[in-house]
Amino acid sequence: MTAARFRRLALIGVGLIGSSIARAARAQNLVGSIVATARSAKTRRRVMELGIADQVVDTNAAAVEGADLVIVCIPVGECGSVAREIGPHLAPGAIVSDVGSVKAQVMHDMAPHLPASVHFVPAHPVAGTEHSGPDAGFAELFIGRWCILTPPEGTYAAAVERLKGFWSGLGANVDTMSAEHHDLVLAVTSHLPHLIAYTIVGTANDLSADLSTVTRSEVLQYSAGGFRDFTRIAASDPTMWRDIFLANKAGILEMLDRFNRDLAKLTRAIKVADGDTLFELFTRTREIRRGIVAVGQDSEAPDFGRPRPSLSPAPLPRPYASEEE
Ligand code: NAP
To answer: 165 CB contacts (<8 Å, ≥6 apart)?
Structure first.
């Protein structure tokens, strides 16, 4: 797919995602100029210091004036009120998009405030980290990741193609699907794992407050047993994730219901010492991990690619050294 170029990109919200779009769009020469804004003066000042936008303005309305591409990069709960602010100031023919992790609710909240003269093409780049703010972004974030577009029925096809071209220019693979389907898929691949991580980290924290069972220092010291991988996910931005759980209530509750049934099955298997059930499930889940590595969505490196300290160059003590040494 050929990369699409825009004259003026307006970014509303310049945190992890907005600032990564700005950096990547610049690096790939996809935009003539970038105008950015954020809610707080502190963030706007930081964006200016970082120099990732050509212009930083104080209001959302001012940001969209004359832009042919507007991308709203803010927590999903804010999207409706921001659409109301920018609606009257959008240039006719502009493409308006977002990056929200939930699609049906965001479309429902934004669409009524957008004039018929613009093209609304919602999007969700399935890429991120647990960090937030303009310093957290980087130009390579979207390379090899998927960006899902959920254009409402009847959206001008050329506008969808242009936005596809923009995201592929940022390095992403682009897919399209309905908002409702997106929300179900993401409920199981992203929202439910976050809920589980938030729960287990909370449980460990509550448990370690009761010093008679497991101490806090034990939880931290032995975290490499699996816990630390949950803590990375559970360190994600609280506002963003509160909004996601409220906005994708139906999808998450459906997946949570299935999860609870499966957890009950495993609980029973442990209680009755049914090792076959456990072994059969763990064999299937291992295949899923191999599949994710095979399609390039993670690296095969053990320990999830964390740098490891090297071993001491001193010879190994017997009996570990071979006889020849
Ligand atoms: P972030 O780093 O916390 O940045 C959010 C930005 O939105 C900040 O610049 C904030 O400004 C601004 N903002 C909030 N309310 C605003 C308003 N009413 N008007 C103008 N600006 C406003 O968040 P993020 O991680 O980039 O996430 C942004 C969106 O991307 C969310 O909808 C999220 O669901 C989606 N997403 C996130 C990830 C991820 O891994 N993080 C991945 C894919 C999609 P201040 O700093 O001044 O408050």
So the answer is: 1, 2, 3, 4
Half-sphere exposure of 240 (CA within 13 A, CB side): 23
| Tokens 């954020």 -> residue | 38
Residues 6 or more apart from 288 whose CB is under 8 A from it?
none
Give dist(CA 102, CA 99) in Å, integer.
Answer: 9
Residue pLDDT, tens place only, 69-127: 999 999 999 999 999 999 999 999 999 999 999 999 999 999 999 999 999 999 999 99
306-310: Cβ within 8 A, 24+ apart: none
Nearest CA to ligand 1 atom 38: 128
Report the C-alpha gap between 172 and 158 in whole angstroms.
19
Question: For residues 126 and 144, what is the distance between their CA atoms, to the nearest angstrom?
Answer: 10
The verdict on the CB of residue 137 being under 6 Å from ligand 1 is no
pTM of the predicted structure, to 2 decimals: 0.92
Rounded to 5 degrees, what are φ and ψ at 261? Answer: -65, -40
Q: How deeply is 101 buried, as exposed, middle or buried, from its count of CB atoms within 10 A (0-12, 13-18, 19+)?
A: buried
> Which residue's alpha carbon is nearest to atom 6 within ligand 1?
13
